[in-house]
Structures are given as C-alpha cells and as structure tokens.
Amino acid sequence: MFREYALDCFEREIRTALLAQEVQPEEISFSAPPADIAADLGLPCFLLARRLRRPPATIAADLAAQLDFGPDRLVGEVSAHGPYLNFCLNPAVLAERVLRQVLDSGSAYGGDTVGQEHYVILDYSSPNVARRMHVGHMRSTVIGQAIRNLYDFRGYRTIGDNHLGDWGTQFGKLIYAYKAWGDEEAMADDPLEHLIEIYARFHEEAKENPGLEQAGRRWFLRLEEGDPEARRLWQWFIELTIQEFEKTYRRMGVHFDTYHGESFYEPMLDDIIQEAVDKGVAEKKPDSPAVVLDLSEYGIPSTLLRKSDGATLYLTREFATLLWRQQEYDPALILYIVGEEQTLHFRQLLKAMELMGYEELTRRCVHISFGRIVKPDGSRFSMREGDVIFLRDLLDEAELRARRIVEEKNPDLTEEEKAEIARQVGIGALLYNDLYQDRNRDITFDWDQMLSFEGNTAPYIQYMHTRCASVLRKAGGRPESFQAGLLQEEQEQALIKDLARFPEAVRKAAEQYAPHVVAEWLYETARDFGRFWRDISILNAPAGVREARLGLAAAVAQGLRNGLGLLGIEAPRKM
Predict the structure, then answer these.
(1) pLDDT single digits (tens) 507-532
(2) Across the strands, what pairs with 89?
(3) Exposed, middle or buried by CB within 10 Å (0-12, 13-18, 19+), for 116?
(4) CATH number of the domain that 13 lies in?
(5) What are the percentages of helix, strand and coil residues in the chain, rounded to 5?
(6) H or E stretch including 154?
(7) Any alpha helices (H) in 106-252, and if so which ranges?
C-alpha cells in the first residue's frame, strides 16, 4: 500500500484540478521549475498546445487564471511563466501537514507498505570461512545492509543471505592442518586467528613437502564423501567462523537471516548440470566429465559448469542457489551486492538461466555493483603487500580515534558516555564514508576526512541531531501542541520542505539501489538546520513562535534519526 505524504498530496491536488479543466492524464507531466522561478513544481504545456493548437504560453496563462485552490489546500500560488504553469506550496498548510506527519509517524515517517507480502532476497558480505573479514569486505556488507534497511522501510519481507565460501579443497588442507598442529587452547582463545595460522603453516610446510597437497586433497575427498571426522571438523570451523563474524556484524548494525554457504547447494549440482545439458545450454565433453557452457554467440565468454576432474565451480553453485531461492521464496527481487569485478560472472549466470527457460526469474535478479576502497593516494589495499586492514581492527581504530575527539570536545562527560558516543561516532563515520558517495565510484579511505565535524560526514550530521536534542532538553521537551503555521521564515520553510522531501528520497534510494540519495538528504537537512540554528532564536522567541520552533526542532531530529537509521548509523543525543 502506497502511503500518501504531503508532496504526494500536493501533486494529487494539482492533478485533480487539471483534470477538471479537461487536461488529459497523459498531458500531465511535472518537472522542477528553473532555478530563477520561485515555485515548487512546474507543468510544461507543450503537449496541451499540440492538442489544442494554441501557444503553450497562452495555455499556461489561461490555466493560471482559472485554477483556484483556496486557503486550506497545499497548493498556494499558481502562476505562468512562458510555456510553464508553476505551482507553489502553501507555507502554512505545508508546515501543519508535514510536522504533524513527522511527529505522529515517528520512526515510521518516510516509509510505507508498498512491498507488503513481497520477498526481497539480498545476497551480501559473503566472506570465506576460516578467514578474517578485511576492508575489502566492507562495501558489500555496508551497502547491502543499507539497501536491506530501505526495503524493510518500504514494507518488503527481506531475507539477508550471507552466501559463505565454505567449500573446496582448502578445507581438506585446513582439516589436515588442524589434525597435525591444532591447539585446543589457541582455538578457545581466538579460533579464527589459530585457523589462519595453521593454514598458513600448511602452505609453508608444503613448499618443502609437496606430499601435503595430496594429503589435503584426500581429506577434502573424505569431506565430500561424508566422513564423520571430516564433517565434524568442517562444521566446527564454520560455526566458530560465524560466531566471530557475528561479533563484527553486530558492531556494524548488520544482520542476516541465513548463512547458506556453497556447501548447502552441493546436493543439487548434478541435477542442475544435467538440466543445462538436456536443454542444450551446456555440452558434456566426450570421454570427460567436463561440461562446457558456450555463450559465445551472445558475446559472453564461455566457461565450465564441471571441470575435467569432475569438480564443480562457483558458477555451478550459483545456478543451484538461484533455483533454490525461487522455489523457497518466489521473491519479487534477488539483489546481489557484489563488486563490479563480478560483472562477467553475472552475465554468464543470468544469460544461461534465461536460455534454460527461467527468463522471468532472471528479470527479478539485479547485480548491484560497486567500486573499490582506495587509500588517499589512490592506491588500493593489497593482501599481498601486507597493508590490508582487518575489519575488526578497523572498527577498533574508528572508536579509538572518535574517543580522542570526544575527549577533546566534551571532557565533562562520564567515561561510560564517552565510550558510547565514541562507538556511535566512530562506527557511524566508517559507514557514512562508504554510503554518502555513489556506490559505483571508488571511495577514499581517509580518517581525517571521515571523522571531521565539518562538511558531508556522519559526525557533522550526528552533531546537528545533538543540537536538536539539546534545545529540546533545555525547553523541557517537545511542546504537546503548537501552531506550525507560524513558521514563515525562509530558514524554517527550508527545513519543512526538507522534511517533506524525505519520503521521496527513500523511494528513490530504494528504486535505484542508491543509499547515497538518503545521505544527500541528510546532509542538506543538517546543513539547513545549522543555518536555522545560527540565524533564528528558538528558546527566546515570542510565545507561540517558540513552541512552533521547538516542534520543528523535534521533527528535524526525528527525520535525521530516520535517515541515519536507514544507513545503519545511530543518532547520539550528546556529543
């Protein structure tokens, strides 16, 4: 169900009035007026001119003279400017309508239930088992959760699936390494670190003893065949890894419903390969287990579904994953939040599935790509060069740096308050630095910039929220009632229009898979509140106006909380 907000009602009032003037529905197409026109919405009259065979400027002038909305409607002044019919919002009615909606709806303001009963599956983060998450995992994790938040906010039933890398020969090597060098105390202290250490030791030892590689393959074969000891250790490694991942995810406000790794789909692979062969999409090589997926006639490089040694590939498991998701949920959308380097992979997957007769399913699949995280000098983080930052350490460093800033700016806070604010500011800065930019761009990792209290940063927006909270505390809380129509100053109207635009920003961000649209709204609103704070007296304003301005501050605070929450960022009340 589509929830109507103030600007929706504004457009509806105009549309209804135009239809009453015998303007045809297809002739109504709104646009933003030029910058030099003081109006909120414009209607080009060119389509009308074509039907009526009259100059568009004459039509615009005639309609402006005929339309009258009255003092209680959202539409205020109507004017013509050349071929455009322009509409202004009624300031008093807008203020009453918007502030009432924000404060009555609270944390639900800006959302709706348009996606009710529809599933959306989001495939994001997807690290490998027995590995630490590092800065390279951050974008998929953060962008994926933000898009999930947006779809939750619009009423969809979202399923967050962490498609773990939990299968392959490396697990045979890891099992061998644990059997040879595993230490129970080290596992109890830091299981991931110990698994990483013994896996690295395996590769070092294998340089001198090539037979270890074969031993690792034998253990993986035992794992594939269901050997109880191999299965026990493998399952244990997965559980320990998920427990460690969850600690990091909780700090980032990230959550998943399922952890169906690659292994979950292993029993389905023979059937999906056979289906691809039977439908003529793939070809089995004679005298070999290899199965080739030839997409060259579609301008897509060919690949394998099964190798000559009988092993399947990641792509094969993606076939099974997609079909299982369809059968289990029949989703409206399946969103893959995966880096741009996987573009070819998704072209192969979706074209092959389309050729197999699943065209309707492939239309529901979207690869949401993104750029990389780069250092201030433009270079990339490299695991080989040893300069990769592990995600746990990154979060620790963010909180530590934020704590120093909090200590400097507000030394009178309690130790508990400083720690909590440092967590909110530090983690928020990391998330916002990723989300405020178009996801397709490479983003720069710069501590000083992301933790700045000036410009387009999370700390700046959070600080504006604390100013709202501060003035409300000093006033003894939000007034129970106030007359929003008294808010006529330019700075006040700018904030009211910002709040009115929030639902539109949410819709656009969800439809375009673009969290930065919400971030842009947050920055513009925080900046406008800063101007309001600087120029307008709140607590010392005359009676009536004082209460209205406090109501506005409460509404802005709610709007900022809602917007930050969609990005997974908390809104401190003190900083």
Answers:
(1) 999 999 999 999 999 999 999 999 99
(2) 75
(3) exposed
(4) 3.30.1360.70
(5) 60, 10, 30
(6) none
(7) 138-153, 169-181, 184-189, 191-208, 211-224, 228-252
What per-residue confidence (pLDDT) applies to 381?
65
The strand order across the sheet containing 84-89 reads: 41-44, 84-89, 75-81
* pLDDT for position 540: 96
Tell me, yes or no, whether 571 lies in a domain.
no
Q: Where are the alpha helices (DSSP H) in 410-457?
A: 415-435, 447-450
Contact between 536 and 469 under an 8 Å Cβ cutoff? The reply is no
* Residue that terminates a domain, selected from 89, 110, 137: 89
Assign 130 to helix, strand or coil: coil
The phi, psi pair for 399, rounded to 5°, reads -65, -40
Domain that holds residue 467: 397-566
List beta partners, residue 313. Answer: none
74 and 185 fall within a common domain: no
The tally of domains found in the chain comes to: 3
Cβ within 8 Å of residue 67, ≥6 positions away? 17, 18, 21, 78
Beta-carbon neighbour count of residue 104 at 10 Å?
9
pTM: 0.94
Residue 490 lies in a domain: yes
Tokens 């392959």, residue? 168
Instruction: Report the candidate in 550, 540, 548 with the shortest Cα–Cα distance to residue 482.
Output: 548
pLDDT at 386 exceeding the cut of 80 = no
Residues 55 and 204 occupy one common structural domain: no
Inter-CA distances, 331 with 119, 264, 328, Å: 5, 19, 9
HSE, side-chain direction, 13 A CA sphere, residue 346 = 19
Given the structure tokens 């005929």, which residue do they identify? 66
Tell me if 573 sits within 8 A of 528, measured CB to CB: no
Q: Among residues 294, 277, 288, 295, which one has the least CA distance to residue 311?
A: 288
Question: DSSP per residue over 452-477, as a string?
Answer: -SSSSSHHHHHHHHHHHHHHHHHTTS
pLDDT of residue 384: 47
Q: Are residues 441 and 560 in the same domain?
A: yes
Share above pLDDT 90 across residues of the chain, in percent, rounded to a whole number: 86
Q: Is-contact 240 187, C-beta < 8 A?
A: yes
Count CB atoms within 10 A of the CB of residue 77.
14
Domain end, chosen from 207, 222, 252, is at 252
Residues 438 and 529 occupy one common structural domain = yes
Give dist(CA 76, CA 94) in Å, integer: 10
Task: Identify the band that residue 575 occupies on the pLDDT scale cut at 50, 70 and 90.
Answer: confident
Rounded to the nearest integer, the mean pLDDT of the chain is 94
Partner residues linked to 374 by β-bridges:
380, 444
Asked if residue 60 belongs to a domain, the reply is yes
